[in-house]
From TrEMBL:
Positions with biased composition (Basic and acidic residues): 17-29
Protein's organism: Podospora comata
InterPro entries linked: D-amino_acid_metab_enzyme, D-ser_dehydrat-like_dom, D-ser_dehydrat-like_sf, PLP-binding_barrel
Source species, domain of life: Eukaryota
Ranges of Low complexity composition bias in the record: 313-323
Region span, Disordered: 17-36, 302-327
UniProt-recorded name of the protein: D-serine dehydratase-like domain-containing protein
Cited Gene3D superfamilies: Alanine racemase, D-serine dehydratase-like domain
Compositional bias per record (Polar residues), positions renumbered to this chain: 302-312
SUPFAM superfamilies: PLP-binding barrel
Amino acid sequence: MNINYLVSSISRQTVKPREPHNLFKDTSKMDSPTSDASLKEQLKSRFVGKTLDQVPTPSVILDLAKVETNCNGMLEATEKLGLLWRAHIKTHKTTELTRLQVGNDKSTPVNIVVSTIIEAENILPLLKEYQSKGRKVNVLFSFPLFPSAASRLADLSAQLGPDSISLMIDHPDQLVSAATIAHTTGAYPPLVFIKIDGGYHRAGVQPSPSFATGESTQGDSSHPSEVLIDAVLEAEKQNKCVLHGVYIHAGHSYGTRTDWAALGYLAQEFQICLDFAEAIRKRSPGHKLVLSVGATPTATTIQHPSIISSGDNNNNNNNNNNNGDSSVQKLKEFITAQSKRENPFSLEVHAGVYSTLDLQQLATHARDSSLLKADDIAISVLAEIASLYPSRGKNSTTEALINAGCLALGREPVTDKGSIPGVDYSGWGFLMPWGGNLTSNPTPGPDFPRVHPGWQVGKVSQEHGILVWDGKPEDEIPLQYGQRVRIWPNHSCIAGACFDWYLIVDSRSKGREDEVVDVWPRWRGW
């Protein structure tokens, strides 16, 4: 986590780097993160009060107003529907944004998801703070358990207490590592989610076809999912773990391109989890289980006005398509049916990138334009124009060099789902309408990614980004050498990972929208 190379570009005065992670570090001392606190104060002294015209480029920027709006929207929707909420913190890897995701002043349980153990180790002081205020906490390590993770997770379990650590299991062999945690002195049997492959094929066990028909019974199949259920229940009997629930991630919902179509994926997620959970209960009657569903496109669809209000499907929404209306009804019926069961399953929603959003999320049209638009994207990458190349672009338009390539923006595309390949947006970032004449740069609208006029990043290499104009040559907005630009990235998680901290601005501060009001250090490593 050496950040000296970045600090040297800020000031000749040295900022003390963060302490590197040590695999053998005594986590009992992790409740006093003096190095991170010291780093934050040093960064604030360098940046707070400066404007975006005065900070180094490239830098990554978060708009506090938009982050808070995005986070509050999920908290309000899950509360209204009586759903459990689990915030994924991998997108930003910061303490400050985690507070917003879980509701810093609430009394509800603090359930979070991490993709790397270092996220859990760094968020430990905040979780202890919440425990001291009477809030229950639980950290789910979302990567299917591998052997070397066990000792660090056991340390976290010892620090946080019973039922504080959850694991993702999708193969029986992983239970050996789970048992290692349970048998570590001071640690506790971990909670276990069985990870289900719902069609994304990244991780998870595929459900037996018999689950959907209700025919699954103990011992009648050698299907991997049934073998896994039996293995987890046996490990639970031996006090090696506690089967907590089933978990699914509809990553393929990123491919939706029409308003509210992601609702269909959400309904599928719940149904797959329900079928799987019923198969567990046939082996273990009455077993308490959590059905955890989500990905930002599916999770955010619970904000549909007809779901969170008592009105009908026409309430405050004129853009619903048939898919949305049908899925709304299915979801409402599903939630209602679970609430009326004698021994209901607990319903949980999880998501992460919703907090910042990005161009990938905008392209999904998971919600209609009343709830999801370009102006809701909270993250941008600040860059400078380093050179201009008149007439080099398409139709003799200008191209411009910026000092932000794939090492600042990432290199993950917005998947081309257009009926004619190559027509939809295929760039690496889109210029915000910000700064001087660029305030008139076209904003991606309801037809994005099919329609995408304006300045965008058309090519990237490591440090180089090339701005290209999409549109009529006569409409091209002139650029100048040294001009600063802000770029909405394709994928917030990847773009953020290119930097050691976020510079925070607040668009609610009229006349001071570009002033840095805080700095949020990110955690690095694994």
